[in-house]
Specification:
The complex is a heterodimer of chains A (200) and B (189). Chain A has 200 residues and is an all-alpha fold. Chain A has helices at residues 12-20, 24-46, 49-65, 76-98, 103-110, 130-142, 146-157, 162-169, 173-198. In chain B, helix 1 (3-13) crosses helix 2 (19-31) and helix 2 crosses helix 3 (33-49). The chains are: A mainly alpha (200), B mainly alpha (189).
């Protein structure tokens, strides 16, 4: 007779395998364990609580529907995060199609702005508390367009390579490099100005 | 400094360059102050991002959050697969009977139609026509003897001689699956 799974104490892999056999309670436990992480990724990309909530829940629904395709080649949370990112990218693409780009956005897209940015020699991270720096980064990220924010998130926080980002964002590796370069340089400028503002 | 070189400096820092190109960029950074300043700026941003993201916590209760997911899963659960009819001898027989029966009905109709066709010579009671009969648009075929084998009735109506039909090599025997046309043997074609 099969041993009954101790759901609260089981590790993720055991829960996933049980859920792959069709058991819902282990999946519910996985949702409880990782819901903040998935919601946080959706929120960092969308910057809207309600949309992030909807899409994070949609990611869990999709995760359940595709659970049998999960081959345990990565961690379950990495796999779920990829689902969430893909949903967010689809959502943002659809939303962008409805919007008309401003001239600034178009210039950002074409990658011309960063060429005129002077190189910053002032270190914005010096003498800044960890939490304060996180808040500053969060503020600066908010000021980036979704393409630049997303490319930074995927590269810096999800540790994706250029080609993986290009695939996820449906663009070329050259575009990824340009967006990443712009996003980093813009972030440097924003962090410095934010630091100056706070110390004024 | 060219824009392409700036992008290559970034790619070098991200470990995305091939060893040979990486060596070229390392040399560029050593020799070019502008390249060095840019690499330092990018390094500062990278270090800042390593502090991580601002933590985000969901306000919804665990149960409420899950209940909404569960409801969506239930709503989007795929319908059960359509009930598959078990394959039985009778169902197999029925599968064959439909095309074979149709074929038989067509043959009978064609022969009947040929027998009452106005082009057919009106038969005299007791006399079998000697005229050679070849395949006609009505579907009648030559018998083994080269004649249309027809018995005659006093009222002139042709009666089909099934012996003659069965003897024909041009018609399929509905009972013998080996003689069935491919389209009937393989209904999927």
């Amino acid at each position: 007779m099969a041993k009954k799974l101790d759901i609260p104490n089981a590790d993720d892999e055991a829960l996933v395998r049980a859920a792959q056999r069709g058991a819902m309670p282990p999946y519910e436990e996985l949702v409880h364990r990782h819901r903040d992480k998935i919601y946080a990724r959706a929120f960092s990309m969308l910057r809207n609580e309600e949309e992030a909530l909807d899409l994070s829940q949609g990611a869990w629904v999709k995760g359940w529907q595709r659970l049998k395709q999960f081959k345990h080649n990565s961690s379950f949370t990495t796999w779920m995060t990829r689902i969430c990112i893909n949903l967010c990218l689809d959502f943002l693409r659809k939303r962008k199609r409805k919007q008309t780009d401003s001239l600034d956005q178009m210039e950002e897209e074409s990658g011309g702005v960063e060429r005129r940015m002077p190189v910053e020699e002032f270190n914005p991270t010096e003498n800044v508390e960890r939490e304060e720096l996180r808040l500053q980064i969060d503020d600066a990220m908010l000021k980036l367009s979704y393409e630049h924010r997303t490319v930074l998130i995927l590269h810096e926080f999800e540790r994706l390579e250029y080609k993986e980002i290009a695939k996820a964002m449906h663009c070329s590796i050259g575009t990824v490099m340009s967006r990443l370069f712009y996003a980093r340089r813009k972030l440097a400028t924003l962090l410095i100005s934010l630091k100056k503002e706070r110390h004024r | 400094m060219k824009h392409e070189d700036k992008l290559r400096i970034q790619a070098w820092m991200d470990g995305e360059l091939a060893p040979k190109e990486a060596a070229q960029i390392a040399t560029l950074i050593e020799q070019n102050p502008e390249a060095l300043a840019l690499s330092e700026e990018l390094r500062v941003v990278e270090n800042a991002l390593h502090f991580g993201e601002k933590p985000v916590i969901l306000d919804d209760s665990r149960d409420f959050y899950w209940s909404q997911i569960e409801r969506q899963i239930d709503a989007e659960e795929p319908l059960p697969e359509p009930y598959a009819v078990p394959v039985t001898v009778s169902s197999n027989l029925l599968r064959w009977m439909v095309p074979v029966g149709s074929l038989g009905a067509i043959v009978i109709l064609m022969m009947n139609f040929g027998a009452i066709s106005p082009q057919t010579q009106p038969s005299v009671p007791g006399v079998i026509s000697d005229a050679p009969v070849s395949a006609t648009p009505t579907g009648l075929t030559e018998s083994a003897s080269g004649r249309e084998e027809e018995s005659t009735e006093p009222n002139g109506m042709g009666v089909i001689n099934f012996q003659g039909i069965q003897g024909s090599r041009h018609l399929s025997d509905p009972e013998d699956p080996n003689t069935l046309p491919e389209s009937i043997e393989n209904p999927d074609r």
